[in-house]
Amino acid sequence: MAFSIAEMILLGLLMDWVFRKLRMPGLLGMLLLGVLFGPYVFDLMEPGFLDASADLRMIALIVILLRAGFELSREALNKVGVQALLMSFVPGIMEGATLALLGPYFLPLTHLESAMLGFIVAAVSPAVVVPMMIGFIKRRMGAKKGIPTMVMAAASLDDVIAIVIFSVFLGFYTGSSGSVWLKVAEVPVSILLGIGVGLLAGWALLKLFEKFNPRATKRTMIVIGLSIVLVHLQQVLEGIVPFAALLAVMAMGFIILEKRERMAHEISAKLGKFWVFASIMLFTLVGAQVDISLAWDTGLPGLALIVCGLVARSLGVLLSLVKSPLTMPERFFAVVSY
Fold first, then answer.
1. Is 216 inside a domain boundary?
2. Measured in whole angstroms, how far is the alpha carbon of residue 56 from the centre of its chain?
């Protein structure tokens, strides 16, 4: 496993550099590296490394959502709250519904199977969106109107909603539809409980840090450790209490930023350095899950279906921003970002 990690770090950094030189996103190079080294092409990764894939990817996701939380200022959220809320479900539902409707015409799927596919595809990837938005915030681009904050906040809620809707259709597909409406009712409970627990955990960490005053590096390690515990808590409570752990992770960063801005920026800077390693693990391991033969089989019809979904998502973003004070170029920036 150690050798595979070393390979991915060295080659991942190289691919990131090469693709940036080609004026393309570095993450595409990491994804391609994962595809080539994964079990469906050359199978060069050690089994132990692949076995730990889910945990490594989750840690990487936790790191990027923590970074999002440490950049979500209350002032910026107040400006874009309504638009962020609309963007959290309107574009995703429009994309998922479009794929559900058109899926059988492009692929050998039923409408129900297409609906499940639609809400898998409709979920935003925070690992792609959040680092870009943080970069814009650092450079003060669009920050005056809170545009990057709006996109980050909406993307986080979008994931929760997409997963729940997928679960509803999965319930119909497996014949366990009796609990479907219960799952729908769990959405607001999950969101509110996640945010509440995160705010409480962040407040407790503030008291701890004020009393013992650990160095920024130790604070960062404590924050990451507690975030992993929260995600594990969600797994323990599954089927008992609905709890959105990833929203709790973001809320924890938000309250620290609100109460101790300097401390929040110090932790965020440390997380940014750790993200260099975490992003390599995340994107190479995601690439390793891609079965090229299946992707090849779907071919142009699959690509055309994705394009139809993106058109619907884009219209959903524009619809969400109808009453916003954003200019038309700023609205199209939100479309592309999302």
1. yes
2. 15
User: Domain limits at 256?
Assistant: 59-288
Residue 171: per-residue pLDDT: 79
Tell me the CA distances in angstroms from 252 to 65, 198, 241, one per residue in order. 10, 5, 20
Give the closest residue to 312 by CA, choosing from 277, 338, 289: 338
DSSP string, 169-213: HHHHHHT-GGGHHHHHHHHHHHHHHHHHHHHHHHHHHHHHHHHH-
Residues 148 and 137: beta-carbon distance below 8 Å: yes
DSSP 24: S
Q: Quote the pLDDT of residue 177.
A: 57
Confidence check: pLDDT of 299 > 70: yes
Note whether 318 and 91 are within 8 A (CB): no
Average pLDDT value for residue range 152-159: 87
Residues comprising the chain, all counted: 338
Question: What tokens were used for 150?
Answer: 């709006």
Q: Which run of H or E residues covers position 267?
A: helix 261-288
Residue 280: is it exposed, middle or buried by C-beta count within 10 angstroms (0-12/13-18/19+)? Answer: buried
In total, how many domains does the chain have?
1
Location of structure tokens 């323990």:
236
10 Å Cβ neighbour count for 27?
A: 23
At 30 the pLDDT is: 97
In the predicted model, what is the mean pLDDT of residues 245-256? 93
Q: Note whether 256 and 202 are within 8 A (CB).
A: yes
Does residue 1 lie in a domain region?
no
Residue type, 163: I
Separation CA 52–CA 213 (nearest Å): 34
Cα separation, 238 vs 82, whole angstroms? 30
Task: Please give the average per-residue pLDDT across 210-239, as a whole number.
Answer: 93
Q: Is the pLDDT of residue 179 over 70?
A: no
Maximum Cα–Cα distance across the chain: 62
